[in-house]
Automatic annotation (TrEMBL):
It comes from Kineothrix sedimenti. InterPro entries: Solute-binding_3/MltF_N. Residues 25-54 are annotated as: Disordered. SUPFAM superfamilies: Periplasmic binding protein-like II. This is Transporter substrate-binding domain-containing protein. Keywords: Signal. It comes from the Bacteria. Gene3D superfamilies: Periplasmic binding protein-like II.
Amino acid sequence: MKKRIIAVILGAALFTLAACGNTANTESAENTENPANTEGTADAENTEEAEAASATEQKVITFAYRNTGNWPVSGEDESGNPSGYDIEVLRAVDDLLEDYTFEYVGTSYDDAYIGIEAGNYDAALTNAFWTEERAEKYLIPEEPLGASVLVLAVRAEDADIKNLTDLSKSGKELAPILAGNGMYYVVKQYNSDNPDNQVEIKVTDDSTYVAGSVEEIVAGKYAAGIFTKPSFDNTVIAEDGDLHQFLTEISYSEFTLANTYPMFSKNVGEDFVNKLSDTLKQVKDSGKASEISEQFFGYDIWNYEF
């Protein structure tokens, strides 16, 4: 009887051990079939986070702006921060372009374009007019960023010459224009529109010449010169301007408006430039660009009349 009881107890013990072994084997098999149960969940979460980060990642567009001699078009404010009409309008554009963020680097006119060629910058902000050469070399948005009021300066005794037609009829000579400068195309377009009142265009390769032409006008070497209003205001009209001493010896008139554009490296692609152009139009249509113009120029370039 004792032997039977011991046998039953041993049998029960063996059955219990076998059951435990089967349970462990089952759990092992489940872990073998899903070896990354916990890790798989973590990987999925990491993938989702990576996709979310990728979705919110913004492409940086770097603008090189002229930080000397170009205020209030571009430059630095009293705190040393990038500002001016061009930059503030682009900030308004940037606010509407969710996939992009704009950065601004202050530099010289020449370095802005050298930097584009070297891949240091994506675009140049230099108050540039459209020219055939620039259109071949850079991507230019269809919508202009800004516009420059142009000033025709003459000697005081020639105050009746107020525009290119007056200059043509006077038979007097326009000072040379820097080769490749947008002023060349302003006069070229005028000549195309006025075949009976042509103005002779002379060019120079001296990049420092344009400001010096004021002195030559006063000296009588040339009868007239063309300047952008911001440059003329800062150089001649401002009391601390480099050529302010000649103000009483000349007469000047605002005579036309020329659109200005940022020049983009072709590496940024036409898709982005087209997006920027469309968004720039939205900013202008909203009246925001006019507000910024009033702030920096004291007048609205988009409602300027001659």
